[in-house]
Design goal:
Elements: H1 2-15, H2 37-50, H3 52-65, H4 68-73, H5 75-89, H6 94-98, H7 103-108, E1 114-120, E2 130-135, H8 138-149, E3 153-158, E4 175-186, E5 192-209, E6 214-220, H9 229-248, H10 254-261, H11 266-276, H12 281-289, H13 293-345, H14 350-364, H15 369-384, H16 390-404, H17 417-427, H18 432-469, H19 480-483, E7 491-495, H20 502-513, E8 517-521, H21 528-532, H22 545-553, E9 559-563, H23 576-584, E10 592-593, E11 600-601, E12 607-612, H24 620-625, E13 626-630, H25 636-654, E14 662-664, H26 666-676, H27 683-701, E15 708-710, H28 715-719, H29 728-731, E16 737-744, E17 747-759, E18 765-768, H30 773-788, E19 803-808, H31 822-834, E20 836-838, E21 842-844, E22 847-848, E23 854-855, H32 860-869, E24 874-878, H33 882-888, H34 891-896, E25 898-902, H35 905-912, E26 913-917, H36 926-944
Parallel strand pairs: 1-3, 7-12, 7-13, 8-9, 9-12, 14-15, 16-21, 18-19, 21-24, 24-25
Antiparallel strand pairs: 1-6, 2-5, 3-4, 4-5, 5-6, 10-11, 16-17, 17-19, 20-26, 22-23
Helix pairs in contact: 2-10, 9-10, 9-11, 9-13, 11-13, 14-15, 14-16, 15-16, 17-18, 17-20, 25-26, 25-27, 30-31, 31-35
Bound molecules: adenosine-5'-diphosphate (ADP).
């Protein structure tokens, strides 16, 4: 209470008369700013006790200036209020009671017409409210000094914006509060601390001076007080809201809430509560400006309900969050207790069991040192984590992967070349070249491994001897690199159309070596992470396909087939082929690092085999690593063989049929090959044979006596309508159409090249049918050749003059590019110009130069097979491809077909075109046509029989 004494001294010295008690004035008050909670509270809680008197006075003045008659009627009530107020007052100190305003003071409530005006920043002082204020501006200090010397009355008005220093008449509101400056302290830095008490609302009319401070003419604007029950109800609401609010916020002390309960007058309620509640300046000023007390209460009430809603919701959220926390803590505690109990009972907790199991598995996994260290470190982290933590499951999953990888578990089989040959022959018909290469590969590997093993054994002996010699001295650790013999054998890559046995060769190799077989399909992979995995920090991270596969096969030396390496894409997610390169590179793959595993894994024992349909799309660095073994399609005879000796037994077994329950003629297979499939490989053939077996199995299970013998005539009954026709003969019925041969990744195909002319000045060449650039160029070259050699070709000198030429290659789904259609284009154009038809049983392929030379092309075998499949027996080929043909094509096919080898385009035309031109409109004469029609009908009837 030292301060209070000091205060009292000050009071007596400076103020000498009526004071407004303000306690604990020790806080610093900032210039022109609203005051901190507790101080305001204490100032006003005492103010609340004291304010009855000024209120009464204001009422009086208000009545006096408005309605004197009513005043008299209200006298009894007023008396009551006064009495009640007095009883509250009795609690105040005696000294204060003594200095209470007397009747004489009340007289003073008639204010002078002109008063000084003090602008306030962010503060609205209401009648009844007592507020401490800091005064820092020089002009304001002067103002206060002046008023302290006279009646101590000043008009306090809020500034429209707190940013303005030295606010002028336009920067302040028009409604303010006449206040009395109660006490004043001068601070050491020259600023003032004052306490003010609001007395009455006034309106500022005009400014009489601006310098040194503002002075203005004023009119009192007493509040309009309604005396109805609604106002009373509103008042009670506001008080009860305020009580609730005080319970939720920290900055209003309890004393204030209690004090408001004692307030009688509605306007007192508004002003006192508004002083304590935090709201923005706009609303504060509005509460002052509204004339009706009823309206003031309504505004305040709606503000308070809104505040309460927000605060109560916030409280609710906070409480439920706390409850959740409490629950987790409780669970944690209970779990710990459970553990303790289990320990006491000598039982294992679930977590402990997991950890023990993992530890056991780590011991069994025989990991290399680095992996073992990591595994143990992660395990000890796991032990410390609560099971509920998300990290727990991440670490556990990781550890489970670590222990399930085949770090040192191999199938242990040694390579036996003789056995491998036997297995390959058992599983595959023909494919001699390929099998030979595979066996060579295995032989080399075998030899190397043997040598390596012998070397290792010798070294071990030597080492043991040395150890004997220098027992006790420490040995330098022999590094892994020194011992490792790098296997520089290229990776084998089988390239060929689907269904030619690439995958099954891989399976056979695995079988021959007694190792596990796994496939990784790379088709459509664009993300490097598919190969190499995601870092463990990502949610849902997984190891890449290589590690996943090894985990699945459970040995570290499987045969892994990387399917479709030609379909690996690259984009912004990284280049999978670079990851593949690392996998396949023997220099690197002994320490392959998967992002998820984050430890080196030795892939050097894995035997990788790649497959592809086409060679070109394989990324060059990858192709470089690999030795390409091409498997082309099969001839009809080969297919029949494969079907009889391999596919049929397999399908019989797959469909639960016993040997001998079903017998099939070779003609059946031939018919299925010809009429139900058109493919380079045997995949569809296998499927159709499967269907056949299934139907027979159904018949047997329905009670038909076995064996069931299937003949060629039964095929439609089992497999439905014939699916493929030899269409070449049907389509080449007029000049301007020829059969060409193309190579595609799924085998050879025949295509029809068509040409037509129509009058046109520009002599344009129109090309349609999704042709590639190279094929477009050969079309242009063909046209130029025909034009420039028209006479030699027996055509009119100005052939195609004033005509547009359209060349079309139907079947948009077959990719058509490359130069090999050159000869076909020329043939079509010459046929069109001469009116001679192209022979329907002839197909051709070959690149052509502008001078008419026929150049060699690729894919001869596939193309010839395709021609044969379509019923064509004569194929025109470049002379230079003759050697390929002799080498690649099986003799039985060569014997069945006729080949024309061309060096010049004239050789092609001679073999391809019919001798006689047909009639002008492209139709043959009616006799010939009739004969052809009859032939066709006969043919069709035969097919349906
Ligand atoms: P790819 O992998 O080339 O697409 P697959 O290996 O899946 O083809 O072969 C399809 C089916 O054809 C398999 O059942 C396979 O055994 C069989 N097959 C293919 N070529 C031969 C062959 N030369 N000898 C025996 N069966 C073969």
């Amino acid at each position: 209470m030292q301060k209070s004494d000091q205060e009292r001294d000050l009071e007596q010295k400076e103020l000498q008369s009526e004071t407004i008690p303000i306690q604990n004035q020790e806080h610093e008050i900032n210039a022109d700013e609203p005051q901190g909670g507790s101080e305001q509270v204490e100032a006003s809680s005492s103010a609340a006790d004291e304010k009855k008197e000024p209120k009464k006075r204001v009422r009086k003045t208000a009545r006096a200036s408005t309605k004197e008659t009513k005043d008299a009627q209200e006298e009894p009530r007023k008396e009551r209020t006064t009495r009640k107020a007095r009883s509250v007052e009795e609690r105040s100190s005696k000294r204060r009671r003594e200095s209470e305003p007397t009747e004489a003071d009340e007289e003073q409530m008639v204010f002078p017409e002109v008063l000084p005006v003090l602008p306030l920043k962010d503060v609205v002082v209401y009648p009844f409210s007592v507020q401490p204020l800091g005064v820092g501006q020089e002009r304001s200090i002067r103002l206060i000094d002046d008023v302290m010397r006279s009646d101590r009355l000043v008009v306090l008005v809020a500034q429209k914006s707190a940013d303005i220093e030295q606010a002028g008449p336009d920067d302040i509101f028009r409604i303010g509060t006449v206040s009395r400056v109660g006490r004043m302290f001068r601070m050491p830095d020259g600023t003032l601390q004052i306490a003010v008490q609001g007395l009455e609302r006034v309106e500022i009319n005009e400014f009489t001076q601006e310098k040194p401070y503002l002075m203005a003419r004023i009119t009192p604007r007493p509040d309009v007080q309604e005396e109805d029950t609604e106002t009373e109800a509103l008042k009670r609401n506001v008080i009860s809201y305020f009580q609730r609010l005080v319970a939720l916020v920290q900055n209003v002390p309890e004393g204030v809430a209690a004090a408001t309960l004692n307030l009688e007058e509605p306007r007192q309620v508004v002003y006192v509560i508004a002083t304590f509640v935090q709201m923005d300046l706009e609303l504060r000023q509005k509460l002052l400006e509204i004339d009706s007390v009823h309206e003031k209460l309504a505004q305040l009430s709606s503000f308070l309900t809104h505040e309460l809603e927000i605060l109560e919701l916030g409280k609710k959220i906070q409480t439920s969050a706390q409850e959740e926390m409490g629950k987790m803590q409780r669970e944690y505690l209970l779990r710990e207790q459970l553990k303790a109990i289990q320990r006491e009972l000598g039982e294992e907790s679930e977590e402990q069991a997991t950890v023990n199991e993992l530890r056991h598995k780590i011991d069994e996994a025989h990991m290399p040192e680095e992996a073992l260290k990591e595994a143990n470190r992660e395990l000890s982290r796991l032990e410390k984590l609560p099971t509920a933590s998300p990290e727990y499951s991440i670490i556990r999953t990781y550890l489970e992967l670590l222990v399930s990888l085949p770090w040192s578990k191999g199938s242990g089989e040694r390579i036996d070349v003789a056995h491998a040959r036997q297995v390959l022959d058992e599983d595959h018909y023909d494919l001699e070249k390929i099998k030979e290469r595979i066996l060579e590969y295995l032989a080399v590997r075998h030899l190397k491994e043997e040598r390596q093993r012998a070397e290792a054994a010798r070294e071990r002996e030597l080492q043991e001897g040395e150890e004997e010699e220098q027992k006790g001295t420490t040995q330098p650790l022999q590094s892994q690199e020194e011992k490792r013999v790098i296997n520089r054998e290229p990776i084998l890559c089988f390239v060929g159309p689907p269904g030619v046995g690439k995958t099954s060769l891989g399976q056979s190799i695995a079988r021959a070596l007694g190792r596990k077989f796994a496939r990784i399909s790379l088709g459509g992979i664009r993300d490097e992470a598919e190969i190499r995995g995601h870092r463990r920090t990502y949610i849902g991270a997984m190891p890449g396909r290589i590690i996943q596969t090894l985990r699945r096969v459970e040995t570290n030396d499987p045969v892994i087939m990387l399917d479709e390496v030609d379909k690996v894409g690259a984009d912004w997610r990284g280049d999978p082929s670079s990851a593949l390169l690392e996998v396949l590179d023997p220099e690197q793959n002994y320490s392959f690092r998967d992002n998820y595993l984050d430890l080196p894994f030795d892939l050097s024992k894995v035997m990788f085999i790649a497959t592809a349909n086409a060679l070109e799309p394989i990324p060059a660095p990858l192709r470089d690593r690999m030795e390409i073994l091409e498997l082309s399609g099969y001839t009809e005879e080969q297919k029949v063989h494969i079907a009889r000796s391999y596919l049929l037994p397999k399908q019989l077994e797959a469909n639960g049929l016993k040997q001998g329950e079903m017998t099939v003629d070779d003609d059946v297979i031939r018919r299925v090959v010809r009429e139900y499939t058109r493919e380079a490989g045997v995949r569809n053939l296998e499927r159709e044979i499967g269907t056949l077996c299934r139907k027979v199995a159904k018949q047997i299970s329905e009670g038909q006596p076995s064996p069931i013998h299937v003949t060629a005539d039964d095929v439609p009954e089992y497999l439905g309508r014939r699916r493929f026709f030899e269409e070449a003969a049907e389509r080449l019925d007029r000049p301007g159409i020829a059969t060409g041969l193309v190579w595609t990744p799924v085998g050879g195909e025949i295509i029809f090249v068509e040409a037509a002319t129509m009058p046109g000045r520009e002599e344009r060449l129109i090309l349609t049918g999704q042709l590639g650039d190279v094929m477009k160029e050969s079309a242009a070259a063909a046209l130029s050749y025909v034009r420039s050699n028209a006479v030699e070709l027996g055509l009119p000198r100005h052939v195609f003059e004033n005509q547009n030429i359209h060349i079309h290659v139907p079947a948009g789904a077959i990719p058509k590019d490359g130069p090999s259609a050159g000869v076909t284009m020329v043939t079509v154009l010459v046929s069109l110009a001469s009116g001679r038809r192209v022979r329907s049983d002839v197909a051709m392929t070959g690149e052509m130069t502008l001078r008419g030379r026929v150049m060699p092309i690729g894919g001869v075998k596939e193309k010839v097979l395709a021609a044969f499949r379509s019923g064509i027996r004569t194929v025109i080929l470049p002379q230079k491809n003759e050697a390929d043909l002799m080498e690649d094509l099986p003799k039985e096919l060569r014997d069945q077909m006729h080949f024309v080898f061309a060096t010049d385009i004239r050789d092609v035309l001679e073999a391809a075109l019919e001798d006689e031109p047909v009639s002008k409109n492209g139709k043959e004469d009616s006799n010939v046509r009739r004969k052809r029609k009859k032939d066709k009908e006969k043919e069709k009837a035969g097919a349906h029989a």
